[in-house]
Amino acid sequence: MVLSNRLTHWYLQNKRDLPWRKTHEPYQIWLSEIMLQQTRIEQGLPYYYKFIEAYPSVFDLANAPADEVLKLWQGLGYYSRARNLHETAKYVASELNGKFPDSYKGLLKLKGVGDYTASAIASICYNEPVAVVDGNVYRVLSRIFGIDTPINSTAGIKEFKKLAQELLDKKDPSTFNQAIMEFGALHCKPQNPKCDSCPFNDKCLALKNNRIKELPVKLKKTKIKKRYFNYLVFNLDDDKTILEQRTGKGIWNGLYQFPLVETEKLVQEEELVVLDDFIESVSNANIELELFNEVPVVHKLSHQHLFTRFWLVNSKDLQENSVSLEKILDYPVPVLIENFLNEYLPDAYK
């Protein structure tokens, strides 16, 4: 109870003024929670405003074209969240008459909603006593209670969920959950936490035992995979180019890109032009090839680094599936390609 009281007191004095804290409507809460997964509030907030303006209700989002949703999401990353967001909106609108499930168990059945998101919505919207456990909560609890069980292990996930549930203020789970997450985000930060003014500095075992930098413990990440991308940027007659939509379960599913030739290492022109994927992309056309960037752009994702070069392909023969350069900015593309377009077509971004 001491932890709950101190947290609530701190929260009421220090909480940020955020739009989704002014409502208990599940649509807005759900939208904010999906957007802020693995995303800082500072980065996600402008996107939240854009989505709420474009789609004021779950019906508006459900009726939106998939490409439009992905375009609005562009730059936020983790695009599977956007696809799941859209699919869930269509399900809620058509199958549930626009009403979100009003319980933790019901919310878990929605696509893209896991334990954390279901707990957040259920507690904030319906005051159901279910504890949230996100990165901020892991950090706060591991430090205060001196827990060194890895937070990304099966045992750690169970241990921290159980502890959070025991500490939860059952009478006001909404405030408690928001308070502990906000405390982790603003006060008990990963680097340079404010231990001197911490309301728990008399109880924090990590502070007492000089283990602040050690906790929480996390198992080592999967080895980073290196991939080598060669994008073929066609320059056709009438200011047209070629775009393809990514499919499958890999990165950026549903987004658009230039024809791609992936290689096992950085390759030179003479190595690139003899590859089957390259030959298939140019369809035996008469072309001129020019390397746009000698130094590859390194785009870092969570488990892979993409070493990317853009090759300019001048051709008068290829017209199939061509796209006007004027329309190219209407397509949802990965940030990697958006940054290239910003440099390649600077006038279009003015």
Overall number of domains: 2
The chain-level structural class is: alpha+beta
Largest sheet: 5 strands, mixed
Identify the CATH homologous superfamily of the largest domain. Hypothetical protein, domain 2
The radius of gyration computed from the alpha-carbon positions, rounded to a whole number of angstroms, is: 24 Å
**N→C terminal distance:** 56 Å
Give the averaged pLDDT, no decimals.
91
Strand content: 5-15%
CATH architecture title of the largest domain: Orthogonal Bundle
Number of helices: 15
Helix content: 40-55%
Shape: elongated
Number of strands: 9
Query: What is the CATH level 1 assignment of the largest domain?
Result: Mainly Alpha
Within the CATH hierarchy, at the fold level, what is the topology of the largest domain?
A: Endonuclease III, domain 1
What is the ordering of alpha helices and beta strands?
HHHHHHHHHHHHEEEEEHHEEEEH
What's the layout of helices and strands?
Layout lengths: L1 H13 L11 H11 L4 H14 L3 H6 L2 H8 L6 H16 L8 H4 L7 H12 L8 H11 L8 H14 L5 H14 L18 H4 L16 E11 L4 E3 L1 E2 L10 E2 L2 E4 L5 H4 L3 H7 L4 E5 L5 E4 L3 E12 L6 E3 L10 H10 L6
Parallel strand pairs: 1-8
Antiparallel strand pairs: 1-5, 2-9, 3-4, 6-8, 7-8
Helix pairs in contact: 1-11, 2-3, 2-8, 8-11, 9-11
Task: Note down, in words, how this protein is organized.
By secondary structure, the protein is α+β, with helices and mostly antiparallel strands. It folds into two domains: 2-208, Endonuclease III, domain 1 (Orthogonal Bundle), CATH 1.10.340.30; 225-349, Nucleoside Triphosphate Pyrophosphohydrolase (Alpha-Beta Complex), CATH 3.90.79. It is 42% helix and 13% strand. The protein is built from 15 helices and nine strands. Strands 1, 5, 6, 7 and 8 form a five-stranded mixed β-sheet that branches. Helix 1 packs across helix 11 (173-186). The model has no long low-confidence stretch (mean pLDDT 91).
